[in-house]
Specification:
about 100 residues, mainly alpha, two-stranded antiparallel sheet, 2 strands
């Protein structure tokens, strides 16, 4: 017996319980919601387990990358995360960069 999949009422896609990759929902997810989904993966930087924050301030970028590879967050979600980093032109970000978990 297979579990019923959630179907998006806007476009009919079946992306599980989270629809963020179809055109009718693009841009609707907040960084907090994306972070919650990314927390379902362990962190490849600090090895924080699923559901455990990486840092008191947020989550390492490496965890978002791992969540993306595992299909927990969409390409659109990952773009929103990278947009939230917004370093100065002379700065760079690394897998250890902390993304503020509560940022909107």
């Amino acid at each position: 017996m297979t579990a019923a999949r959630w179907q998006c009422p806007g476009c009919g896609c079946e992306n599980g319980s989270v629809c963020g990759s179809c055109p009718c929902h693009a841009g609707e997810r907040t960084l907090a919601a994306i972070t919650a989904d990314a927390m379902l993966a362990s962190c490849g930087w600090c090895w924080g387990g699923w559901g455990q924050p990486c840092d008191a301030d947020g989550v390492h970028l490496a965890r978002f990358a791992r969540a993306r590879r595992r299909g927990l967050i969409s390409e659109t979600d990952m773009a929103a995360v990278l947009g939230a980093v917004a370093p100065d032109p002379e700065d760079v970000f690394t897998p250890g960069t902390v993304i503020l978990a509560g940022a909107a």
